[in-house]
Amino acid sequence: MKHFLLLAGLTVASLSASAQSTSSSSTSLSPSAAIDSPAKFLGYQIGERFTPHHRVLAYAEQVARQLPSRIKLIPYGTSYEGRQLMVVAIGSEANMSRLEEIRTNNLKRIGLMDGTPTASSQPPIAWLSYNVHGNEAVSSEAFMDVLYHLLSSSDAVAKKIMSTTVVILDPGLNPDGHDRYVNWYNQMQGRVADPIPSAREHNEPWPGGRYTHYLFDPNRDWAWQTQEITQQRMALYQQWMPQLHGDFHEMGVESPYYFAPSAKPYHEDVTPFQRQFQQTIGQYCSRYFDKNGWLYYTRERFDLFYPSYGDTYPTYNGAIGMTFEQGGSGRAGLAIEKADGDTLTLRQRIDHHFASSIATLESVADRPTEIVKEFGQFFDKSRNTPIGAYKSYVIKSSGDAGRIKALQQLLERNKISYGYAGKAQNVAGGFNYTTQKTDKTVAITADDIVISAYQPKSTLLKILFEQNSKLEDSATYDITAWSLPYAFGLQTYGLTTRLNPGSTQLATATPAAAVNPQTRPYAYVVKWQSLPAVQMLAGLLKQKIRVRAAEKPFELENKTYPSGTLIVTRAGNERFGDRFDALVRAEATRTGADLTPVQTGFVTTGSDFGSDFVSGLKAPRVAVVVGEGTPPPSAGEVWHYFDQELQYPITLVDGNTLGNVQWNKLDVLILPTNYNYSRFLNEKTLNAIKEWVRAGGKLIAMERAASFLAGKDGFELKEKEDKSADKSKKGDNTDTLKRYIDRERTAVSDDIPGSIYRVNIDTSHPLGFGLSGGYYSLVQNAFNFDYLKEGWNVGYLKTDNYVAGFSGKNAKEKLKNTLVMGVQSLGRGSVVYLADDPLFRGFWYNGKLLFANAVFMVGN
Ligand SMILES: [Zn+2]
Predict the structure, then answer these.
(1) How far does the centroid of ligand 1 lie from the alpha carbon of residue 246, in Å?
(2) How do residues 132-163 score in pLDDT, each as one tens digit?
C-alpha cells in the first residue's frame, strides 16, 4: 500500500526535482489561470477513469481556445475508423508567433528544404508520442497533465522548457486501438475498480487494444508505413524533423518503470552523441524517480536496432530517440493487485509518465544550443561524408515496374531522394546483392535508379539497404534483417564510388502510354510479377470478367511473357460488349499494372491462348481463421492484404465457430499461425475440412498451422526428426556446460528472430509464378519440415541459403535441407504449406505476389 503515500502527496508542481531558477524570457509566458485544468474540463480527476480519444482532443481544443498564443493544434489525418489524428505544438509566445519559420528553418538547416535559414539560432523541437499501443492507455491521460502543467505552471522547470523549446505532443497515435481498449474497460467496470487480477476487467479479450484497426503493431511500422495512421503521421514528422522523440509505452504489471539508456544491441550507426544522450536522459529521469522513491530500470530489454520503432527511426533520422515503459498495459485497469501485495493504480502510472515526460524535456531545455548544433552536424556529415561502405546504390530498371514503383514510394515517404542514371555507363566494382559478391564492372543503363549516399537521409538509407546489419549482441527483441533489395526482389548494386543521379526523369516513355483506345485487340496480357498485377486480377474477378493464366512462358509479337501471365481475351467476355476494353483498361490504370494489348492468340512459342495450358481463373471465396490464439498481426496482415491492398472480399471466421462453416460456400481457407488449433480443429472439424478439400477446396496453412497439420492423417507434411538431442550426448566436454548467468544467450542458439534466406524456387509451379528473379524469405521459424515425397516442393532450402540476420546455430542447422513452401493434392483440392509468413508486417513486398499465387494460382 506504500504507493498511496505518493498518490496523495503528488501534485504536478512537486515533481520539479531538479528545479533550478531560470530568469530567461519568462516574461513572454502567460499567467496560469488562463486555462482549465483537465479535471475542470472533464468533470473528474485525471486517473479516476479512462478518457476516450475524442475527449482527450477536446481538452486540447479547449486549451487552444483559452490560450491561443501558446498552443497550435495541428490535425494530420483520420484513422481507419474515422477518428481524428492531431498533434499540439506549444512554446513561448515568441516561438509560437514564428512557429512556421522555426519549422522551415529547421528543414533548411538540415538540407530537407531549399533556401537559407532566416535566423542564426534555432530552438530545439522535442516531440513526445503518447499511446502508440492503444491499450497502453495511460500515456494519453498523462498528455493532459503535461499539457496543462507546461502551459499553466509557474514552476521554474516548466518555464525553462517553454522558453527554450518547441514541444510537440501527440495525445494518441493509435486512437482506434485506444478506444477499443477504453470502451471495453468502461463497460467492464463496476462502481469501484476491482484490483483482483483474475477479474474480467483485467483480462482483455482478443485482439486487445494494442493494435491498429487492421491489427498491425504500429510500433513496428515507422519505416514501412503500411498503416494509414503511420503514413499520415510520418508525413507530418518529415515536415518537422524533431531533435528529440520520446515514445511512451506500458509493459507487464509487475515491471518497474523503464527509461533510457536503452539495452544492447545498439545499431552500430547510433552516434556517440546519441549514445551519450541516452545516459543524460537516464540521469534526468532518475532524479525524479529517486526523489519519489519509485523503482525503475535501464539498459535492459529494449534495444536500438530494428529501424521501424519509435526510438530507432528518429535516431536514424538524427534525433535522440527513446522508449519509456510503465508497468500496467491493458491488464492493469484502474487498479490492480501486484504479486508483492501492493496495488498499482492508474494515477501512479500517469505520474510516472508525467515525470519522465518533464524530465526528458528538461534535459533538452538545459542544452538547447548543443542539441540543435549536434543535429545539424548529423546532417552535415550525411551530406558530405556519409557513413557506410557504399556511396551510391543502383537498382536495375530491368526489374518489374510494380516493384520499382513500390520501392520508390517507400523512399519518398522517408524523404530519401533518388533519380535515374540518365545515360548508359560502366562503373567499376559494385556489390551485387543477388550473388552477394563484388562484380568487377556494373553496366548501368539510362533508366536505372541511382541513389546517392550524399544526402540528408543518408544514415536511414544505409540502414534500410545494408545487406547484413551488424549485431553486437544476439539477444534482441525483434527481427534482425530487413534489407530492402531482398524484400522487394530487385537487382541492386552497392557502389563504393559516388554516383549522382543524372536525371530526375525516366529516359524512355512507359509502354502503357502506347495503348491505343481505338484498336480492338484480340486480348490483353499482364505480366504476373508484382502487386499491381494481383490488384488488377482481383479487380477483374470482382467484376466477373473472365481471366486466364498461362501455365508456361510464351512469346508473342516479339515479346516474351513468363509463367503466370494474365490473359484477358475478348472471347468468353462477350457479354460486356463494347464496354470490355474500357473496363480492362480502367483496371490497369487504377492499379498501375503493365497492360499489353495483342492482336492474336497464336503464339510464337509456348501455348496458344485457347490451349489447356492456359487455365481459367476462378474468383475464389476466401476466408481466414482469426480469434484467440492467433497473434493479432498474423490475422490482421491477411485481412489488411485482402481488404485494403487487393480490395477483394474476405470472410473472417472466429476459430471457435469453425465447426459451423458452410463449406460449400467457400473455396479457400487460410489458417494463419495460431496456438489453439488443437481446440479449433478437433477431429470432427478437421475431417470436415479434409472432405471439403477433397471436393475441390484449397487450404493454406501458415507457420504454426502447417506445423499443426504435419504428421496428421491425410497431410503429407512431416517434421524431420530432431537429431540435436543425440548430439548433446556425445563427448563429455565441460566447455558445453551452460552457466546460469548466460541463460538468455544459451536460449538464443535456437532462435531465429527474423533473418533472410534465399529460397530455391520452382518457378514452373503456380506457387512460384513471377518469382524467377529469386525469392528471399524473412525466416522466423525453424520448423524443420522434410521435403514432400508426393507433393510439390516449390520453395526449399539446401545447405547454404543463409543471407543475412541473426540465426542461432541450432536454428541454422535445423533449416538445412528443409521445405519452406509446398503444395500437395488431396482429392480434387490442394493444401498449401507456408513455413513463413510472406505478409509479415505488410512490408515484405515480394511476399505479396507469393501469397497471391497461393490464393489465385495454385490448383486451377
Ligand atoms: Zn508499447
Answers:
(1) 12
(2) 999 999 999 999 999 999 999 999 999 999 99
